[in-house]
Amino acid sequence: MSRLTITLDDDLHRALKETAARQGRSISGLIEESLRLRGIQSMENARQLVARARSEAQCSEADAISLAVEETRAHRSK
């Protein structure tokens, strides 16, 4: 597991701590979930997504990659 140091605005840091306490979760858990919701994932997970898309859609690798990129962009723009 890697460590990361970030700088947050005091109000945002306080809100993050309060949310974590209210939900009974860790700050790192909230941050990891937020990153995943923004579509940030490992290359292995991205490859699995493309493989699943190809399998279910029965399309070429290029079409599957294009579909995955479109879906990721659509999800991120929400």
Structural notes for this entry:
This protein has two domains: 9-38; 44-76. Helix 3 crosses helix 4 (61-76). By secondary structure, the protein is mainly α. The mean pLDDT is 88. It has four helices and no strands. 72% of the residues lie in helices and 0% in strands. The longest helix has 16 residues, at 61-76.
Descriptive terms for the model:
single chain; 2 domains; mainly alpha; 4 helices; about 80 residues
> What percent of the residues sit in helical stretches (DSSP H or I)?
over 70%
What is the radius of gyration? 17 Å
How much strand content do the residues show? Answer: under 5%
- Kindly report the average pLDDT value: 88
Q: What is the domain total for the residues?
A: 2
Number of distinct beta strands: 0
* N-to-C order of helices and strands: HHHH
Q: Provide a count of the helices.
A: 4
- Unreliable parts: none
Helix/strand-derived category reads mainly alpha
Tell me about the biggest sheet? Answer: none
General form: elongated
How far is it from the N-terminal to the C-terminal residue, by CA? 29 Å
Give a topology summary:
Blueprint: H1 10-23, H2 27-37, H3 43-57, H4 61-76
Helix pairs in contact: 3-4
